[in-house]
């Protein structure tokens, strides 16, 4: 396995301009297993210059037809699938995800490329009738250089869901992965290179917040895509405001509510499985994680019993062990944040039903947190209001649907939520009343390539996935022709 990684700028692998290399730590062992070059502001400038140069009319990228761009993205998807085993193994090591989740995300990455590749030759402009002596048409053009600032929780997914529409629409990209996770992104970039992407069209520079700041402040940038925390999202918006740079999408997290209103306790298997999944999937490090469970009072104690039973079946451990449902958290910093929320929950008087700290059987090393269920919670608690981003859920009894909807909407985030019910009227009326960008009825699906995904309130702006997502990577130019 490769243990030394470099920046990818202008089609060339190179060291950062000041020679800095940082260790990459396996979160299951806390040991470094590789090194990666770190980008500097100078490297950011080189990458933006390369991306700008690649756009020049008459250049290779500009001469590719939309059909060719679409076929190219499909060919990268095929290469990704051929390399699933290697990508997943690296992913497990760097991120800690269990193999089934790592390979699932590799497949998602391929699907994003295929989906948006399919759109490349379907983008159109239009003509506008102004009468016989004028002709008017509207061109749909790429924005130009787009900057993509990525988080660590779904690095492949989030890379492909924005880079794929950007390239399909003819833009060029500079990507800054999260400091915690850059190797899988660099590995993916090498597949774009292998498939024959012209130099400068895609550039990947690992680095920290300073690098992200430099990239978002540069006037050469014509579009910014950001996923991460609200606090950083505000800084990115401020940077974008200086140059009036369009922010294509901004996905800032969530505190999804799940409303349990099934007929009786015999129908609790689905929601109890959903609650266990909310802790197991990506160890809860998801913006769409169902972390608040509002349960009708007569179902409340049976629901807690079912969830506790499910949690006992979840195996926590390193991705290398067979049968692991959830791996370690991504970094020491994040582990400490999640543990501090667990202490807060206990101090706030929530009743601990399961978990509550580090699993006892896993020794001292690795950022492992046991799936943790808090009961008897209320909306005044910090564990209910704030994004924990770990394997922790809160359960709250409610008397009726109106109360559940009001409590679900009483949060600064508005990304996604769900309702569990077999009553079709309840399902659709609640879906329309939830103040979020995405509702699931009877399940925990959070996203799809073909559907718009994104939030309201502090969860952000713009949508990823679906046709609107690719339109956001284009701009309209009106051409007015006087015929007389
Ligand atoms: P963050 O917002 O600090 O980092 C996200 C990305 O932004 C990283 O690539 C980071 O290097 C970059 N960045 C940081 N400062 C920047 C700046 N001034 N300008 C441009 N880019 C900058 O998030 P984090 O520290 O990795 O995680 C903190 C919390 O954010 C998590 O605990 C979680 O609650 C939330 N989060 C949400 C998502 C999501 O999917 N919406 C993803 C990751 C983290």
Describe this structure in words.
This protein is of the alpha/beta class. It folds into two domains: 4-252 and 459-480, Aldehyde Dehydrogenase, Chain A, domain 1; 256-448, Aldehyde Dehydrogenase, Chain A, domain 2. Helix content is 39%, strand content 22%. The chain has helices at residues 41-54, 60-63, 66-82, 84-95, 99-119, 155-168, 183-194, 209-217, 230-243, 269-280, 297-312, 332-347, 382-385, 401-409, 424-433, 467-471; strands spanning 4-5, 7-9, 12-14, 21-26, 31-37, 126-128, 134-142, 145-149, 172-176, 202-204, 223-227, 247-251, 256-260, 290-296, 351-354, 372-375, 392-398, 413-414, 416-420, 438-441, 456-457, 460-461, 474-482. The strands form six sheets. Strands 15-16-17-14-13-19-20 form a seven-stranded mixed β-sheet, with helices on both faces. Strand 6 (126-128) and strand 7 (134-142) form a beta hairpin. Helix 8 runs parallel beside helix 9 (230-243). The termini are far apart. The model has no long low-confidence stretch (mean pLDDT 97).
Compact summary:
By secondary structure, the chain is α/β, with parallel strands linked by helices. It has helices at residues 41-54, 60-63, 66-82, 84-95, 99-119, 155-168, 183-194, 209-217, 230-243, 269-280, 297-312, 332-347, 382-385, 401-409, 424-433, 467-471; strands spanning 4-5, 7-9, 12-14, 21-26, 31-37, 126-128, 134-142, 145-149, 172-176, 202-204, 223-227, 247-251, 256-260, 290-296, 351-354, 372-375, 392-398, 413-414, 416-420, 438-441, 456-457, 460-461, 474-482. The protein binds nicotinamide-adenine-dinucleotide.
